[in-house]
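Posting for a labmate who doesn't have an account.
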Amino acid sequence: MKFISLSLRSVFSALVALGISIAPAISEERGRLILPETAAFPESIAIDKSGGIYTGSVTMGNIVYISADGTDKLFVRGGTNGAISIGGLLLSNEQDTLYACSSDLGLNGFSGSAATGLLAFSTSSGELIARWDFPGGGLCNDIAQAPDGTLYVSDSFVPRVLKLPTGADAFETFLQDERFSGEGFNLSGITLLGDSLILAKFNTGQFFRVDLANGPALAQVIQLDQPIFAPDGLRTLNDDTILVAAASGQIARLKIDGLKAKVIPQNSSFDGPTSLALHEGKIYVVEGQLNKLPAFDPSAIAPNQFTISIINQ
């Protein structure tokens, strides 16, 4: 997987060259949840109605569940059911299914054992319900679900957004656009805002809007009033605002009006944030620290622990 390693290393090197911090610059009062060792290098997060947290490991392939009282359990063991490196997580609208992106980044002994794809697990039993392979490979990054149950999934390596209608046996290509191409990670976060999909492109800092109500699908660039470097996880806050977790260390609000957006920085003191979730007036920020993966940066020192930071909305 030399291509992946060099590509990601070049992205993080570019951030450093631009003088953009990828480590905490300041500290603030916040809650912190220390993750178990089974959740090393977490990438995403999903929170159920009870406050229970799902997070996955890029290096171990595990999905871990942490209940509201802090008790953790291994929800999915890496290497089983095609779980290799876990990326985006999403609870279904009914919260009876956990969707999980699994990709092969060559980071563990499970590499080569399964195709890149989307996995669906029962939240009550942890059993695999279904899996859908990515046609032609790629990298399953993030997931959004429409009210009718349709799933939209971003691909970081192939310039496309895939679509999985309710009950479908296989993905279909919803939108393919060469503007989604580039070196290293391309499309990253995806979220629904009203009748539109909002997409982030990690390596360029671009955001796109796709109207779902009036076809055919077309990605239109959103003009930001100031840049967001290395945007990754996205979550919808309200009818016109999304939250962005950027690997540069920033959490920001993006207030969107048509094809223009105002960036409202919320905090710039996180350590490699990869995703976030909302629960009861709080923002839960996964500090995945993927820039410290030895496979991506041989000089990096692996962190002793990984955390989810909790701040007010």
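Reply:
Got it, the structure tokens are right above this. The first strand starts at residue 31 and ends at 34.
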